[in-house]
């Protein structure tokens, strides 16, 4: 199995490793039922649009993010004002339909289309001004969960150590949804513990 050089993680706050170090505390981790690294004690949070509360030795930390408006979500990295209406529709169509926008016949696929089956630029602007939701980037937002410690460990280890552990991102399909997290090769827990001590990562394995 090829071990990825890095993994994209949505921007959230506070960063777990930094916060644990600042509080001079450690967090217990272990396997979940899918052999993914997880915090042993976690729950849903309420201080952000999407968050998780992770209990550690000295208390708890809530890590999360607020969803951006759709304009910032869909047009990050683009000069929005420089784009034509057609170019904007092409970008959104590719994101929400996973296809190539051709002409006005494709407008019916847009969520802002009116009862007259016409998708105007004004309707699009109103839709883009609304806040995005969990469903807009469900795969990545779902990483901010009880499995967040696995991602933080992955991102804080050098690539050669991740490869030695056989660390990889794993997606498991279940009834109606899927879960994603970090796993590693069998028999590597003791080696992981040694590396967490070496790099002062504030986690320990459940007994």
Write a brief structural summary.
With 207 residues, this protein is α+β, with helices and mostly antiparallel strands. It contains 8 helices and 8 strands.
Q: What's the helix and strand layout?
A:
Elements: H1 16-22, E1 27-31, E2 37-39, E3 42-44, E4 50-56, E5 59-65, H2 70-74, H3 85-97, H4 121-128, H5 138-141, H6 148-156, H7 159-165, E6 168-173, E7 178-183, H8 189-198, E8 203-205
Parallel strand pairs: 1-8
Antiparallel strand pairs: 1-2, 3-4, 4-5, 6-7
Characterise the protein shown here:
With 207 residues, this protein is α+β, with helices and mostly antiparallel strands. It has 2 domains: 120 residues, no CATH class; 63 residues, no CATH class. It has 8 helices and 8 strands; from the N terminus they run H-E-E-E-E-E-H-H-H-H-H-H-E-E-H-E. The chain has a 3-stranded mixed β-sheet, with helices on one face. Strand 6 and strand 7 form a beta hairpin. The mean pLDDT is 91.
Please, what is the oligomeric state?
single chain
Radius of gyration: 21 Å
Instruction: Give the total of domains.
Output: 2
Shape estimate:
elongated
Q: Give the structural class.
A: alpha+beta
- In total, how many beta strands? 8
Overall pLDDT metric: 91
Within the largest sheet, what's the order of strands? 2-1-8
H and E order = HEEEEEHHHHHHEEHE
Percent strand? 15-25%
Low-confidence stretches: none
């Amino acid at each position: 199995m090829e071990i990825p050089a890095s993994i994209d993680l949505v921007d959230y706050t506070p960063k777990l490793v930094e916060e644990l170090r600042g509080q001079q505390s450690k967090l217990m981790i272990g396997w979940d039922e899918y052999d993914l690294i997880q915090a042993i004690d976690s729950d849903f949070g309420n201080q952000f649009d999407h968050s998780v509360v992770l209990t550690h030795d000295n208390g708890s930390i809530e890590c999360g993010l607020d969803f951006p408006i759709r304009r910032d979500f869909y047009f990050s990295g683009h000069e929005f004002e420089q784009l034509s209406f057609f170019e904007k529709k092409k970008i959104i169509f590719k994101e929400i339909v996973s296809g190539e926008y051709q002409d006005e016949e494709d407008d019916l696929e847009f969520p802002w289309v009116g009862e007259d089956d016409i998708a105007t630029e004004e309707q699009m602007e109103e839709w883009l001004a609304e806040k995005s939701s969990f469903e807009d980037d469900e795969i990545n937002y779902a990483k901010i969960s009880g499995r967040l410690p696995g991602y933080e460990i992955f991102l804080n280890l050098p690539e050669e150590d991740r490869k030695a552990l056989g660390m990889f991102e794993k997606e498991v399909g279940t009834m109606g949804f899927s879960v994603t997290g970090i796993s590693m090769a069998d028999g590597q827990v003791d080696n992981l513990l040694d590396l967490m001590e070496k790099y002062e990562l504030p986690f320990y394995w459940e007994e």
